[in-house]
Design goal:
14 helices; single chain; 2 domains; binds magnesium ion; Rossmann fold; binds adenosine-5'-diphosphate; six-stranded parallel sheet
Length: 390
Amino acid sequence: MPRKMDELEVAGRRVLLRLDLNVPLREWQVADDTRIRAAAPTVRALAHRGAVVVACSHLGRPKGKPDPKYSLAPVAPVLAELSGCPVRFAEDVVGERAHAAVKAAKPGEVVLLENLRFAPGEEANDADFARALAQLADVYVNDAFGAAHRAHASTAGVTRYFADKAAGPLMLAELAALSKVRDNPQRPLVVIAGGAKISGKLETLQALAQKADVLCLVGGLANTFLVAKGIGVGRSLVETDLVELARQILEQAQSRGTEVVLPADVVVAESPEAGEGQVVPVTAVPDNGMILDAGPQTVAAITSKVGSGTVFWNGPAGVFEKAPFAQGTLAIARALGESEAFTVVGGGESVEAVHLAGVAAKISHVSTGGGAALEFLAGATLPGVAALEA
Ligand code: ADP
Ligand code: MG
């Protein structure tokens, strides 16, 4: 585990604080402030301890050059309001304006640098850019777990130039919760995997399947496994290239004695736009039909498994954005909310689903880590974490 931010001497020192302020913007306004709200206590804690906080983040994918569409400027007033600290916005990343803003800031004040990805050196993990970033501060804190799986200048390269570096509270909470799932889970370990983004997830699933006692496959992801078992899925979402890997995962699970729960019944319709679906046995999906949700028997089989131990859930059970196909996902979310188990939910849409079901506060840990969380669970060393420990 990296050092804790609380252990660093920060009074009167400039702290380069890597945050995840990658929020959606609409017409130069913050459209969803969840990530700023999450980061605000870290900013406030450092400012109250007398640091000059030099906050930085990426936003979107501006491809290494300034693009007003991706400016962090609209984030500054929201960060000021939510943290209660004065926030000065620097109109460049490591240029004259950043230096001037940092120089003018007093202890307890915050400077927000412009989008790191306006500089080509950020994603390239360029040493000169990393050094320039480091020159803006004396101490480094990374609280952007969601960016920790990328070896970028602000998450990896920059740490070389700091003797004092630590992880912020959001990063530490993610590491603690995900380690509990990965390293010594309270048994049984139940993994529920679904969603639509299958490539990139199956490798994580393969690693987790080695440890899980129960593996529940739902959503679009399950379709590829159904095909691997020779079950027809009509016009449903399938990743043909991954059928073989799915078959391997099922085989490995069987030889290890992992219980696999595949859909027994499903909700089908002609398209997600259809006003309603029809529940059919999984072996009776019509050729022109699409599987759009888990059926009631499947949901009951899954919810009966999640009462105790450890549950990790990634990926909705259906197209929950459309009311007729949301039942499976909402029922799983509610079951996790009522569970005595240590429950962890990760993934953009999965997290949305637990909010929609109104149970987010009852989940042991809601991970905002996305890809970083999955890579960590699969056993990868995250460059952003390793760089703090070096
Ligand atoms: P997460 O963001 O939680 O990691 P993904 O990005 O993999 O999850 O997938 C989320 C999406 O999966 C949702 O938008 C949902 O509509 C879609 N989905 C779930 N089940 C199906 C299905 N059977 N067919 C098509 N899309 C599905
Ligand atoms: Mg997603």
